[in-house]
């Protein structure tokens, strides 16, 4: 397989995850089976619904992740209290071990990629 692609329609088919009420999330690309963890890459779409309340206790990220806001706006706040509001076209990088809360004043559609394996949609990938 040389490459994979998805149409924009995939944005409208993102499933809701059971461990977070305001986030829809789907791993859409992942390295081939048998790829070593240090060489793996997973790309994901996610949609954040409007919410004033970010998550409670923040889990530590298990891998570096980078992404771009495709539509809407997203608010990020880390464990140090640093806050930023990103809009369509803005990018982010979250370092492994960071604790980041996500929220939105309207909604956000994002694409992100990280060095981790595909995860089970019923289990939080960032839980400790």
From TrEMBL:
Q: Where are the transmembrane segments?
A: none
SUPFAM superfamilies in the record: RmlC-like cupins
- Species for this entry: Penicillium vulpinum
In terms of InterPro entries, this protein maps to: EutQ, RmlC-like_jellyroll, RmlC_Cupin_sf, UGlyAH_Cupin_dom
Task: Specify the superkingdom.
Answer: Eukaryota
- One Pfam family linked to the record: Cupin_3
Name of protein: (S)-ureidoglycine aminohydrolase cupin domain-containing protein
Residue ranges of domain (S)-ureidoglycine aminohydrolase cupin in the record: 61-107
């Amino acid at each position: 397989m040389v490459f994979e692609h998805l149409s924009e329609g995939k944005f409208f088919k993102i499933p809701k995850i059971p461990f977070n009420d305001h986030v829809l999330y789907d791993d859409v690309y992942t390295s081939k089976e048998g790829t070593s963890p240090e060489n793996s890459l997973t790309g994901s779409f996610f949609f954040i619904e409007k919410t004033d309340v970010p998550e409670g206790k923040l889990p530590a990220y298990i891998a570096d992740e980078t992404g771009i806001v495709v539509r809407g706006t997203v608010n990020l706040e880390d464990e140090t209290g640093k806050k930023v509001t990103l809009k369509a076209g803005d990018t982010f990088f979250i370092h492994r071990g960071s604790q980041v809360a996500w929220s939105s004043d309207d909604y956000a559609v994002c694409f992100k990629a990280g060095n981790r394996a595909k995860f089970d949609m019923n289990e939080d990938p960032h839980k400790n």
